[in-house]
Each structure stands twice: as structure tokens, then as C-alpha cells.
Uracil-DNA glycosylase (Rhizobium halophytocola), 233 residues
Amino acid sequence: MTTTDVKLEESWKKALSGEFDSPYMQALKTFLKDEKAQGKQIFPRGAEYFRALDLTPLDQVKVVILGQDPYHGPGQAHGLCFSVRPGVRVPPSLVNIYKELKSDLNLAPPPHGFLEDWAKQGVLLLNSVLTVEQARAASHQGRGWERFTDAVIRHVNDERPHVVFILWGAYAQKKAAFVDQTKHLVLKSVHPSPLSAHNGFFGSRPFSKANAFLKAHGMAPIDWSLPANADSA
């Protein structure tokens, strides 16, 4: 996996060229090729590994939401954390995100879980690990993706002004612990998973807090409403 053979939005391709050309990314590419050669089903499809970066160029990042791994069920993952393809049942954590969105901004939940509309407005929906084997959660952890996405976060931290980092759960909070809180807003709560959402996620109001911060720094807020028809997102 080198800079020349990766199809990626240009601002990110330039920023991350050193990562793509490094030995750990070569090893990751070899690992993924070997997994596919063994007939394993990898999610998301190859063209969508970097979908979050493609939809949210570096110079347009306003908000970062961090996830951990792609969904590992058929037809779910498409490169954005917490998001699923149109027509796929909304996962439990996203159901809870929608509940908090309703409570926070009185926005009715859409009948789908397709979040590309947020990404196109500057919300970087970044998983820490960008691939997974079908039905094997966390199967690609420790293969190099974490180092790559650390670099993504570092570029946002260093090069963007006044970004909102929304960190749900201990994993995301540890991963982004180096973010400069004198420049950026870091919003922390427990994960929206049904196992933890009632312990501090509900009532945390991340969406209104993010928009207040953006407006206070002269930036357009995010329209967190999602179109009812996922195809128009």
C-alpha cells in the first residue's frame, strides 16, 4: 500500500503520504491480500476503506467522532463509524445516538442509519481500525490501522483550528488523549452502546455543544438532521 496505488482524497493523500510509504502499511497491505486470498470476507469493501477521509477532506474537518472497528455483519460497514448502508437495520448504538439527538436538538430519527450527510458537512466519522473479517469482531486490531488513524487524528489536531472531538467510551478517549484541549473542544461520555448509554451518554448533549463551539469560533454549525430518504444523503 503506497501513495501511488491508493485512491484517496488529495488533501489526505498528501498529508498521509509518509504513512502509506512506511513498512507498517506495506505489512498491512500484505496481510489484507493474504486474508482475501484465503477466501475470507473483509468489510468494508476495498474501495471504502478510506471513505471517511474521502468524504471529509482535511481542510474541511470541523468535528471528529471516533469509533473502534467496522461492523462485521454482511452489508453493514461502508467506511464511516456508526453508519450503515441504506436498507440495513439501524444498529443499537446508533439507535441511542438518535435518541440523544432527539433529546438534544429535537430532531426526529430517520428510518435509516446512513450518516454520509454528516460526513459531507465536515464530521470525520473515523474508526480506529478500518477493516474487519466477517463475523469476527476486532479481528484486524493490532495490524497497523491504529497507527495510521493516530496519524489522521494528529494531522487534524495540528493543522485544523477549533475542532470538536466527540469521544464516546474509554477506547476513543484513550486514543485521542493527545488532542490539544487549549485549541479544540473535547467532549467525553460513555459509549452509546445499550450496555452503557444510561450511565452518562443520555443527556450529554454533544450535538448542541459542538454547534455552540463552532459558532463561537465563527464557523457554520453542523445540520445534524438527516434526510428521511437515505439515497438523498
